[in-house]
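Hey, resending since the last one bounced:
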Amino acid sequence: MMEEPDYLKEINNGISEMYNSIVEIYGKVLSVLEEPTTDKTKEICEKTKSVMGQEEAVIDRCVEALIRHQPFAGDLRSVTSAMRVSYDLARISRYLSNIVQVIDDVDSGMRCAPDVKGLLESGWEMVQESVMSYLSKDPIRAASVIEADAKIDAGYRKLLSRYRDYAGGGACVLMNGLIARIIERMADHACYISAEAVYMVTGSRIGVRAPKCPPNRP
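The structure tokens again:
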């Protein structure tokens, strides 16, 4: 196997740096779910802004690689996939920041937010696996992430069903419903990253970015 070009190593280092920043954000968000507080909101927001800057740096490296090195075949797929993955990671960081913003906007002192803690942990596991499958160029591992998305979708629908006739308070329903939707979208971006891993290695596209349309009703 040929050694990876230095410009691809630099691009992937940028992806890894983005992921490490998001790991920090996730830890802070999880602590807010366990103990709702406004103290970490600004800190998380600032960290998310730094991820956006890291995304721009990755894209700049990709554009420079396309212009200076004119990659082809697998190397070209790696560069174009990195551009899409950097966007997906930036979106994931924004979604994590949105979770604490929802808690603040609805009521930072409420104790019902942990209802979505398990769903967040499952979604985060998908994010971890997607990034690892991408960096290790493991399409089998990536495919398992895409398969796991059904579990997140089912958990999201189950939560909405549980709260449909909930009489314990509208704010709690609103908070958990909004956060669950954010987690569902975050998991979608984990699938997108995994799809890029498959494409990068095999050259075949998996149509996970298309919307999931409901079946026709009788």
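Helices lie at 6-34, 41-68, 73-107, 117-135, 139-163, 170-202.

Sorry for the duplicate.
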